[in-house]
Amino acid sequence: MQGMVRTRIAPSPTGNPHIGTIYQALFNYAFAKRHKGTFVVRIEDTDRVRFVEGAEDKLYSSLDWFGLVEDESPRKGGEFAPYKQSERLELYKKYAEQLVREDKAYYCDCTPERLDEVRKKMQSEKRTPMYDGHCRELGKKSGVIRLKIIPGQTYTWRDGVRGEITFETSKGKDPLIDDQVLLKSDGFPTYHLAVVVDDHLMKITQAVRGEEWIPSTAKHVILYHYLGWEKEMPLFHHTPLLRNPDKSKLSKRHGHTDVTWYREEGFLPEAIINFLGLMGWTHPEEKEIFSLDEFIHLFDLKDIRVVGPIFDLTKLTWMNGEYIRSMPIDELIKVIKSYYPDATFSSIDDEKLGKIVVLAQSRIDTLKQFEPLIKHFFPKSLFYTDSEEDKAIALSLREELEKVSNWETDTILEALRVVLKKHSIRMPVLYTIITGQERGLPLPESLKIIGKEEVLSRLKK
């Protein structure tokens, strides 16, 4: 298989990239790279109603961020260009018309109103709504082109995840598969025609996609047979759907399906990729933390589990924290600076910022948690209180800290303990007076970084 493998993802530019797209891209990318093959990105932009300007660029940005850079695509070109379906319309027309000539497809000019009536009638009869074949033998010369399903046929295909799957085109007199539209009247193909033509012409060897496409694969297999390409069909691998903890499908109704959300929330791409790698696959050593390179070395499509994996955001957050804690400080500083706007830390010099990051590294799980944790380090940070009791505590604190000649963590802690004992209070009270929060980074270490002069100035004010 070395060098022969060709995998692909074929997303539609209808909005921000979905985390499920990255999940599929990871499996396709890893399998191709393991076998020194080719990973293709093909843009399925034939749905002009849902097309969103700029969505394709966001997809590439996400793939780059995750390190899943494709080998062939609209932006990179390749031997089988063009890679946008809207630029391949003549190809689809050619094969659709070929099917019509061979009596394997036909023109249909049924109106939307008639189709709606047929659907409602079938529903009232408790039958599966599908086209009733009205135009099959009328020899129409215009309209949409529909696939002509022959009743009484049996087809078998092998799924790399689920094994052998057999389906029939009818049960008695009742059809089980619709006469699917292949080419719309505006010349644009439906998914079913386009995916078969494109996968064949682009020599895709493994078609890895979600299990929701299993029913459609029956139509695709028929098309491969009708076009004489059945011996060159890609091996289908239908992966389990990502699910929420309540077992419901991870859909766009949930905010954490959008890749943009993860970037904004301060998740690291390496952690997300690691997490997605565990969705439907298990490390041979049952390790939970591993790199993309390790995943590529070990991953095989045949090892994908059938059971739908649970997308547990709590576990991802934990995993993200593990990546943050294992990161060299210099790298973590760069990542934090890249995440926050340039002006955020402009008032903190690099030396002090480095000390703050060291202190915070073990206490944050996402980059977004960093800034709220360190607000008291910003110059001129003041936190006000109207409580006379708090003012008395602040005065005592100032008096004790003034006595500290050697401004080190242990001597600062001794001064804090004197105040705690004098006022019979606990550390969160002092933390709130100095930082405006009840808890956060260790207080003695924080005060050491802020500096004695600045701390006393704040307490005085």
Task: Summarize the structure in words.
By secondary structure, the chain is mainly alpha-helical. Helix content is 43%, strand content 10%. The protein has helices at residues 19-34, 55-66, 89-101, 112-124, 191-201, 214-226, 259-264, 269-277, 292-298, 313-326, 329-339, 350-360, 370-373, 388-402, 409-423, 427-435, 443-450, 452-460; strands spanning 6-9, 38-41, 105-108, 144-147, 154-159, 163-168, 170-171, 174-175, 181-183, 206-210, 235-239. The chain has a three-stranded antiparallel β-sheet. Strands 1-2 form a two-stranded parallel ribbon. It is elongated, with a radius of gyration of 31 Å. The mean pLDDT is 93.
Features:
elongated; 10% strand; 461 residues; three-stranded antiparallel β-sheet; two-stranded parallel sheet; mainly alpha
